[in-house]
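Methods — Computational structure assignment.
A single polypeptide chain was analysed. Its primary sequence is given first, followed by the predicted tertiary structure written as structure tokens.
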Amino acid sequence: MVRIGGKRQAQARARWAGLIKQWGNSGRTMRAWCSEREVSYTQLCKWRRRLEAERAGAPLTLIPVVSSPTRNALVVRLSGGVGIEVEGGFDPALLAAVVRALAESASC
């Protein structure tokens, strides 16, 4: 494994953080965005995980799904305070998009 020195590492971190931000703002799937821009999907996944772990202090892990006994809702919590709450009358297309995004992020 080749280690990148201080200045080069900072430059690489800034470059990949910028690419990740561009992808996030694009509304495209990560694979499609990488393919369109000839960016390595594998490297984008690696840097995304690395930068997220650095920000959070530890990788995110899935916490078991909890259903609410007091109302018609389903809550999914991830470590780091991220969560999804689905109530009756939700938009199925939106939920499907969220699930696809979560699956894509897990596949990296």
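Note: Helices lie at 6-26, 30-37, 41-56, 92-107.
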